[in-house]
Design goal:
Blueprint lengths: L8 H8 L7 H10 L1 H21 L5 H12 L7 E4 L27 H4 L3 E7 L6 H14 L5 E6 L1
Parallel strand pairs: 2-3
Antiparallel strand pairs: 1-2
Length: 156
């Protein structure tokens, strides 16, 4: 905590109280009057700490991954972020084309992942695949991602 925000209310009361009023009862009475001010002061410090933590978050991949794991998957830390432009199209022949390589109908990458406009893919555990968690996840990513960057959420 910065020294500028460190306030000892008992010392402040003692310094502003004239010497002839410095008795235990008067000090206790004024101390009771300032209890509301101390409560507001503690709320201010709590809000300030939260704001400072939020200001430390940048759109860097490592920090965004840490924030998402802290908020959604604190124990396992299985949320990953991958660059979407790493995947190139793989051309696999179907059975009807009579070519030597046949791997079935399953796609290796989705069409969304192969588009050039996507910046990154957020890989999330299947346990977080519900409407409420997805909405909160999207809101958090939109808050901290770089403006104009597109992303896809993939559940595994």
């Amino acid at each position: 905590m910065d020294r500028i925000f460190a306030v000892d209310f008992k010392k402040v009361i003692l310094n502003f109280l004239p010497k002839f009023f410095r008795r235990k009862r008067i000090f206790a009475l004024i101390d009771a009057f300032t209890s509301g001010l101390r409560t507001v002061y503690l709320l201010f410090l709590s809000k300030r700490n939260d704001d400072n933590k939020e200001l430390q978050i940048t759109p860097q991949v490592c920090i965004l991954r840490r924030v998402l794991n802290d908020y959604f998957d604190g124990s396992n830390r299985t949320i990953r972020i991958e660059d979407a432009n790493l995947h190139e199209r793989s051309y696999i022949f179907t059975e009807g084309e009579q070519r030597p390589l046949f791997l079935g109908e399953r796609a290796i990458y989705t069409a969304d992942e192969l588009r050039s406009g996507t910046g990154f893919v957020v890989i999330v555990p299947e346990a977080l695949n519900n409407t409420a968690e997805t909405a909160r996840l999207k809101a958090m990513i939109n808050k901290y991602k770089l403006a104009g960057t597109k992303y896809i959420i993939r559940y595994e």
